[in-house]
Amino acid sequence: MDSPIEVNIAATKAFGNFHEANRKRLPPTTPVQSPPQAKWSKPPPGYFKVNCDTSFLQHNASGGLGYIIRDSLGRVIAAVSQPSQFTSPLQGEALAPRTVLLEAISETLDRVHVESDNRDLILYLENPGKAPPSTLSPILEDIRFIASQFETCLFFHISRDINSVANYLAQKASSLACRTSWSISTAWLRDLCNSDASAFAASINF
Predict the structure, then answer these.
(1) Which CATH number belongs to the domain containing residue 86 in this structure?
(2) 166 lies in a domain?
(3) DSSP 3-state helix, strand, coil percentages of the chain (rounded to 5)?
(4) Quick one: pLDDT at residue 201?
(5) 89 within domain boundaries
(6) How many angstroms separate the Cα of 199 from the Cα of each of 6, 40, 45, 58, 78?
(7) Positive or negative, the Cα torsion across 178, 181, 182, 183?
(8) How far apart are the C-alpha atoms of 152 and 119, rounded to whole Å?
(9) Is there a smaller number of Cβ atoms within 10 Å at the N or the C end of the chain?
(10) What is the pLDDT of residues 147-176, one digit of tens each?
C-alpha cells in the first residue's frame, strides 16, 4: 500500500499530465494587436496638401487659425498661425480653409487637397443643397468660388490625430498679436512634421 506522500506525488503528476494534454488540444492564441495609428499621408505627385484648423476662445469670441501646406514629398511650403475673430467654432473652421486657399493662390499652387477635422464643414462644402447657419453661408460661397480658381481642389474630412500640426499652429495663434509665418527651420515645426509624417521611411528634408 502506498504511503500518503506517494499518493500525493502520484496525484500531482496525474494533474500535471491532464493539464498538459488539455493545453495541447486548445487552439493557438493570437496576440492582440492594436490598430495601426492614423498618420498624415503625402498627396499624389504634383499635388499639394493643405491642413487647417481653428482654436476658439468663447469668452471673447476670438481665436486663431492654423494651417500648413506641404508638397508630395512632405516638404513645407507654408506654415502659418493667424489670430482671428469669429463667433463660433464652426465659423472659425470655415475661415481656415478660405484663408489657406488664398495663401495657396499666392504661392501659385494649382492642385490642392484640403483636409479639415470638422465633419460638418466638409459636409456643407460637399453638399451645396445642405442649408448651413446664416453666419456660415457667405464664407462657404467664398470657399467654393476660390476653389474654382484651381485646376483641382478637393476637400477631405480627417481625424484630429492626423491634423495635429495644423491644430498646434491654431493653438499658437491664440496667443499672437498678428499673423505669423513660421520658418521651416523652426525646431518645433520640424519635429512636429517629422512626427506627423512618420509613416515615411525617412525624415523630411526641409
Answers:
(1) 3.30.420.10
(2) yes
(3) 40, 20, 40
(4) 44
(5) yes
(6) 62, 8, 17, 36, 21
(7) negative
(8) 21
(9) N
(10) 999 999 999 999 998 999 999 999 999 889
